[in-house]
Amino acid sequence: MPASRTVLLTGAAGGLGTLMRGLLPRYGYELRLLDLRPIEGEPDAIIADLADRGALREAVRGVDAIIHLAGISLESTFEKIVKANIEGTYNLYEAAREEGVRRIVFASSNHAVGFTPRPQGDDPLIPVDTARRPDTFYGLSKSFGEDLAQLYWDKHGLETVSVRIGSCFPEPTSVRMLSVWMSPEDGARLFHAALTAENVGHTVVYGSSDNTRLWWDLTTARALGYEPQDDSEPYAEKLIAEQGGLDPDNPAHARLGGHFVTDPPIWPY
């Protein structure tokens, strides 16, 4: 990527987008921000819907890469998921193709494989090539996004790193999250690696810190140059004392997607 490294950050007003707005510039990126909602303190942010293909084409024009975080990040109706996450992601890829952008980092999700049983005991870590088993329409849309990324690599030479994000918060808030947590600093490290690694084609990686209780294999992420520095273990004693351990007979504890498989949180808009 050129030294200027201008990156379009979609979903810049969201939780993860807000964290990355603060962290990614440290790596030398000039961020161009896009969201459906105004962003406080960012008067130059682009306010646009993913359905507006003209606005998307203008937004991607001249950038070196895109980090695509925009869309619905919880469960919703199929119709809303299709509009925001499926059609919206297609519209962004088309705009990138038309404007010659060569790299997208796509925010996929562990919920693309949410019905996968979590490792227990001496079970091996879950590899990225495990069969997709989405736990919601939301997870289904992330499976679509991964396939769309593969198509645009094979057909148009547009590279993507699809990051199956666990939970990126300043600290873990549940016992399950001890296994899938990604610290914001590690999130920025992973996005930086995904933006700068060479010859990624379409690469799928899991997004988390190097947690002691890790459930999935970070080999493909490390191959990009990702070196996670954080671990959720310092939070474990307090969370387990408050919430108890994971019950293997509870479907919400036994599957990778947690409570998304039983009672998914619903998008409020």
Topology summary:
Blueprint: E1 6-10, H1 15-23, E2 30-35, E3 46-47, H2 53-60, E4 65-68, H3 78-99, E5 103-109, H4 137-156, E6 159-165, H5 177-180, H6 184-196, E7 202-207, H7 219-223, H8 236-243, H9 251-254
Parallel strand pairs: 1-2, 1-4, 2-3, 4-5, 5-6, 6-7
Helix pairs in contact: 1-6, 2-3, 3-4
Describe the 3D structure:
This protein is of the alpha/beta class and 269 residues long. It is built from nine helices and seven strands; from the N terminus they run E-H-E-E-H-E-H-E-H-E-H-H-E-H-H-H. It has helices at residues 15-23, 53-60, 78-99, 137-156, 177-180, 184-196, 219-223, 236-243, 251-254, and strands at 6-10, 30-35, 46-47, 65-68, 103-109, 159-165, 202-207. Strands 3-2-1-4-5-6-7 form a seven-stranded parallel β-sheet, sandwiched between helices.
What is the tally of beta strands? 7
Largest sheet properties: 7 strands, parallel
Output the structural class: alpha/beta
Give the fraction of residues assigned to helices.
25-40%
Strand content: 5-15%
